[in-house]
Amino acid sequence: MAESKTKLPFSLSVLTIVWCWCLNDLDGAEGRLEKVNFVVCQLFALLAAVWFRTYLHSSKTSSFIRHVVATLLGLYLAFFCFGWYALHFLVQSGISYCIMIIIGVGSMHKYCFIFALGYLTVCQITRVYIFDYGQYSADFSGPMMIITQKITSLAFEIHDGMFRKDEDLTPSQRDLAVRRMPSLLEYVSYTCNFMGILAGPLCSYKDYVAFIEGRSYRGAQPGPGGEEAAPWEQHTDPSPKAAVTQKLLVCVLSLLVHLTVCSVLPVGYNIDEQFRATASWPTRVAYLYISLLAARPKYYFAWTLADAINNAAGFGFRGYDRNGVARWDLVSNLRIQQIEMSTSFKMFLDNWNIQTALWLKRVCYERASFSPTVQTFFLSAIWHGVYPGYYLTFLTGVLMTVAARAMRSNFRQCFLEPPQLKLCYDVLTWSVTQIAVSYTVVPFVLLSVKPSLTFYSSWYYCLHICAILVLLLLPVKKTRRGEMVHGNQHPAPSGKQEERNSSSGWNSTPVMNSVSSVKPEQGQEQGGCRHRWSPQP
Description:
Elements: H1 2-25, H2 33-55, H3 63-82, H4 87-103, H5 108-131, H6 141-162, H7 171-176, H8 184-192, H9 205-212, E1 218-220, E2 231-233, H10 241-262, H11 273-278, H12 281-295, H13 297-312, H14 336-340, H15 345-350, H16 354-365, H17 372-384, H18 388-411, H19 419-446, H20 449-458, H21 462-473, E3 476-478, E4 484-486
Antiparallel strand pairs: 1-2, 3-4
Organism: Cavia porcellus (Guinea pig)
Protein name: Membrane bound O-acyltransferase domain containing 2
Membrane topology: Multi-pass membrane protein
């Protein structure tokens, strides 16, 4: 109880700052009231999460009550924020559940996937091209994107657990496999709970149910040297207070940066005719980087706040590190420091919108029988939406990722010694990476084809041309899966650390993970190197 009292004043101060921001940001007759609804609902969810953990802890009440309350609060927030459009959440979830029951475990994952993604796409087309083109509002298709991830993930996990043989599953698929059909209450609680209904992030069904039932604090306590020890069960739950406070502080700082910098440095100014005609190339390069840097804090704010909400409710605990410090990053969606200090395109993507990239890997990349990269890219593009700028960003991102990997694998080993040379190399690769990422995501922000092509033509498509030349000139070889590998790059060995243990950093400026950045996973298929996949912002 004392813990909740220490959190409430800080949460209320965050609420005050955000409320002032929303009122200050209202513009025109439409007023952007949906933005006010969204942030206020998220902060209400934060307070509700503290209450949920304090008064409806798994040690004090049944999992049935926790499911019911989490669901009712989630539906209340959805209807408050989106009105009757929130019925789409129930329609999509309800029909998908009926498909699971009627079709059977042998094929229901395919039908659920087609229906959920198709329903989402129809809603996105309707919203974009009929009602609200070009508006980054708190539209109802945003939560539907997360619900689509949950529905399809669960369908594949049920198929793995109730139909496929264990020997045919990868270690992560066995770990996530669901061995019985969820009840309707469990299913709706998973898809529509108040902690993730508005901004996610995605979590696995087994992790969510373990949290509701109070089993999420079991794990293997590390020994003195960091080695694994026998499983244990904690008698007192680790407190999320420090993690939540730290994440709320990040939210406040991100919001302040967004308020003070973003409006002064609009991304659209990169295509301003006078700016393009008069600014020098160094000025244009610097402004490109700074304007895209200023555009990121709003995503830091939204994703970190969503993470804090889950942690405040007691969800997101991932065990202890080798120093015995509790880790609350099970459902974290980004690593800000790694993003801003990235020295490679892959490193940037690996730490941006983590949970979406894991979803793309689990439901598509590791299951594709042919051309996994192409299929996963296509899925990511459809899931993101129908703005043409998204597709320009993804196509450019794939090109940049493959070219960057080729450059790194051919030249990095030449700059590892001495330390001074490696430092110069790191500074150079950081600069190139940040400019390349900024160059790539401009269409994602501009949305439309004409302004996006105006930007690229003003840069003479220089990075596109450089990337193509790299792919043409550097040596290439194929792995057994047919993936192209440049220079001295070899398939990475299977690591003992599994994808779920590295899920504290991934892709949605909305979600832009680029096609070949999936990290190796424990016990992956023999066919060779599976990279952590990435298409999203």
